[in-house]
Structure formats: C-alpha cells, structure tokens
Amino acid sequence: MIGTAQRTPLVPSILLVAYALSGCSSGVGPISLAPPTYTVGGTISGLAGSGLTLFRNGSTIARGANGIYPDLGLGTLLAGQAYDVTVIVQPTSPSQTCTVSNGTGTIGNANVTNVQVACKTNATRFVYVANDGSNSISTYTIDATTGALTAVASLSVAAGTPHFLAVNPQRGYLYMTNGGSNDVSVYAIDGANGALTAVNGSPFPTGGNPSSVSIHPNGTLVYVTNQSDGTISAYTQDPASGALMAVAGSPFTMGSNPVSLAIPDWTNPLLDMYLYACGGSSNVQAFTINENGTTLTGALTVMSGSPFPGGSSPVSMAVDPVGNFIHVANQGDGTVSAYSGDPARGSLTPIAGSPFAAGRGPSAVVDTFGGFAYVANKTDGTISAYQISAGALQAVAGSPFMAGTAPSSLIVDNLGKFLYAVNSGANNISAYAIDPATGALTPVSGSPFGSGNGPVSIAVSD
C-alpha cells in the first residue's frame, strides 16, 4: 500500500531548449524559465500496521512500508513556501501511533530530506466482553507480560440483547449491537481507565436484529448488518461527539440473514471503496462504497460479479492485515473459505485448496498481522489455528486447541501476543499466549477468567 512518489516536473529543461531555439530566430525574445520546485522527503520507521496516511498542504498520501523517501509523495513546493507534514490517519492491525518530527518549515533552495515519521505499536490495555444473559459489558485490563485479565468494571446496559462489539481504533469508541431493541449503542472510551460513557443520542436506530458492526479504515464510516431485514445500515460518525448519522439511502439491501462484514484497507484508508458481507446465503456479497469526488459518501452499490460463491452458512469474516486476503468461517459445513482480493476492482477469487477444514460449528475467525488465523469451533469447544501462506491455510502443529464450552468470539491483542475467546456456554474467557514462530496456543496462567452471564462477543482497545 505504498503510494507513488511524485516526480519533479521537467518543465525547466523544456523551457531551456525553447530558449536556445528562440535565439536562432530573429525577432523572438527570451522565454522566462519556470522557477525550480522542491520535494519534501524523509524517513518512515517502526511501521507495522496498515493505513498510515500523511497530510501536507492539502495533499494526502498513503504509506505502507518503512524506508527512506527522498520524496514522500505529497507534491512539490517553491522556494519560500511553508510546509507542514502531519499524520491524518494512524495505522491499524496493529493499532499504532505515528509521530512526525522536523515536519514543519520553509522551503529553501534544496529538497527537504529530514522529515521523520516514527511509529510505535500501542499495547492493548482494555478488553470488553458483551454478556447477553446479564445485559452487561465487562471491562478488563491486560497484564502486558503474562496476558492475564483483571476485571475492573461491569457496565449494565438496557435489556436489548447485546450481541456484537467493535472498537474504532481511530476515534476511541466502542460499538455494541442490540438485537432485541434494534439499535446500536456507542460509547466513548476513557483512555486512562477504560471506562465507557454513552455518547449523546445513543443508542441509534438500526434495522431488525442487528448482528455485527464494521468500521471503515478512515474511522468515520460505520456499518451494521441487520439479520431480520436482510439489510446493511450505513452511518457517518461525528468525530467530536461520536454520534451516528444515517447515510442517504440507508439501509441498503443485502440479502438473506446478513451476519458479518469486512472492509479491507487495500489502497488508501481515506478512499478504500470495498465492503464485503456474508450471511444465510452460501456466498459473499460485495459492495462498492460510493464517492463524491475525493470523499466517500458511505452509500453502497452492489459490485459487478457479486455475489461470490462461498461455503454453507458463512457467519464470520476476517481480513488478512498483511495481504489482500479474506477468510470466511462457514458454520454449516465446518470450513473456512479463503479469497484473494483485487485491490483495483474489488473482485474475489477463491484461493487454491479453499475451503479449508475447521472444527464443528465454526463461529468466528480472526487473522493476525503475524501471519496466523484462528477459528472458534463452537460445537467442539476448540480453536483451530492456521499459518497463512499466500492466503491458503495450513493447520499448525497441535491444532485444534481446547477452549471452554461453546466458544463464540475471538480477538487478538494489538501486539499479536495473546488470543482471547469468550465461552458462551461456560460464562468465562479463555486466554492464550501465541507462539510468534509457530502460531501454537498455550493457556495463560489463571485462564479461564470469569465473565458475565452468556458472553457472546469480545473486543480490545489500546
């Protein structure tokens, strides 16, 4: 996801030739040369996530790799012009904070080469669990060394059947779908202690039986699947207040029983245009996110070629954060479908060997930036672990690993060190250390950790 650096125009050379030629013809005066322009460049270091977007004097550029950039790709400037390089979108998967030094100044008579963008991965500090049996959200802190969880709070919520949690890493908000009351709750996360505060206007109306939430990589568009209606609700989010506002034309028709969404960051997080959804039909629906000039409106249009064939009763989707791949857990046949995505057109192509075997009743899938994928097998009470190779899945040694009764949701911390699974049939959370070399899982000391009644979903925040 590396942007194309802008080259300095060759106009001055052309004008010099024109001037030389003009001297051969009588009566033609000299042609003024265009003033020289200069680039702003520097170094990007520590980048591990995707979506880093820089901003300077009205121009944006996505950068996806560490390195020395003689030109950061943000356009050229004249001598005497001021420049100000900032980060407009922070990386995610994993969540990182990038800071800019030497980012402001005035162009002299040479290219600027000393801008430094340094990125640091944010350690996960808080874990949130939705409990539909006790209508609550449990909050935990993570021991960064051992992965152990410590319960710090339990927030009672309205009796609306909490179903699914998601965190907006760009804005610091937690979302929870409420299947019984047909709405979505939005909470501001206190970065100091993880406390949750409902934003003004929350909860916000959805369609019937909302089942999942997905946040666009730009952090300002939010989508909710509505199982009963067969639709997807689309919202813009006020970055200051956190309030959700329905996009014009929302909700958008999806089809039978939509339950999961994925929005990959394949190009530029400000302009990523593809959304994928799965549900009761044995396929994956693909949509284009409409744009108005250079701004996404959030409205959805069914993509040409959609739907793409899938497994039986797909229930969960994950995007590989280090490649253009999507994995889908199929509850009906105990498999995982793997697709390669086309960043230019959005089309999906099955990976050779797909679908790949999982356990019985797979209920959730998660990919890690370390190159591994994990699937919760609700019927078996196990977790299948895979190494990802060009999108294909190969079971790691020792897989599947034992979990509790009816694991229904999975999450991996931002550093890729620990995996957590909520066991809806046992009212607890299994915690594992991830072997960074093999992907194998080892139970954390003290696991499982207690939750509320009927835990169904889990999310993490830094």
The class by helix and strand makeup works out as: mainly beta
For the record, the CATH architecture of the largest domain stands as 7 Propeller
How widely separated are the two ends? 24 Å
Largest sheet: 5 strands, antiparallel
Which topology of the largest domain does CATH recognise? Methylamine Dehydrogenase, Chain H
Oligomer: single chain
In the residues, how many domains can be counted? 2
Number-wise, the strands total 44
Portion of residues in helices?
under 10%
Radius of gyration: 25 Å
Number of continuous helical runs: 1
Mean pLDDT: 88
What do you see in this structure?
The chain folds into two domains: 11-120, Immunoglobulin-like (Sandwich); 121-461, YVTN repeat-like/Quinoprotein amine dehydrogenase (Methylamine Dehydrogenase, Chain H, 7 Propeller), CATH 2.130.10. Helix content is 3%, strand content 49%. It is built from one helix and 44 strands. It has 462 residues and is mainly β. The strands form ten sheets. Strands 14, 15, 16, 17 and 18 form a five-stranded antiparallel beta sheet that branches. Strands 19, 20, 21, 22 and 23 form a five-stranded antiparallel beta sheet that branches.
